[in-house]
Amino acid sequence: MSTDHDEKTEPGFAPTALEGRLRAIETVLTTNGHVEKAKLGAFVEVFESRIEPHAGTDITPGAPPEPDQPAAQVGAQAMLAIPRDAEGPVFRERWEVVTFALALMLAERGAFNWGEWAEMLGEQIKRLPIGGERDQNPTYYRLWLGALEQIIAHKGLAEARS
């Protein structure tokens, strides 16, 4: 299935739940002026060449974090494990590129700092159930998408500017 964010006209196209969530985020952030659509498009275009469907974009959670381990520490460790090769970050699908780009653009604008991001990402990881999805090795960028949603809610970025 294509993950292009442009409207699809072919019969039977239905975006995945992740793509739908990401479209909603992208719409809110561009509408509220937190992200420039043209700049996002240019950023995504640069990283689209880094899409490798068989790239190692899974995380290996291993043992669950200790209950008393701070979320920021868990997230910081995960940030160091960003899927990459010798040239930089790698992605499996376009939605991962868009998620990555939105997070970088919001940080660049000062919407959050990387310490806050590490905490939100760590919270996503700590919420993974033991068994089930944890054992299925969720994609790294699915956790980024959850952290992005959490940052947007926490910072009030979904609220219309006055």
Order of helices and strands: HHHEEHHH
Tell me how many strands there are.
2
How would you state the average pLDDT, rounded?
81
How many distinct helices?
6
Regions with little confidence, pLDDT below 50 for 5+ residues = 1-13, 132-137
The gist of it:
The chain has one domain (21-155).
Kindly describe this structure.
This protein is mostly helical. It has one domain. The protein is built from six helices and two strands; from the N terminus they run αααββααα. Helix 4 packs parallel to helix 6 (140-155) and helix 5 packs across helix 6. The protein is globular, with a radius of gyration of 16 Å.
Provide tags for this entry.
162 residues, mainly alpha, 6 helices, globular, disordered N terminus
Write the SSE topology.
Elements: H1 17-31, H2 37-48, H3 71-80, E1 84-85, E2 88-89, H4 94-108, H5 114-127, H6 140-155
Antiparallel strand pairs: 1-2
Helix pairs in contact: 1-4, 1-6, 2-4, 3-5, 4-6, 5-6
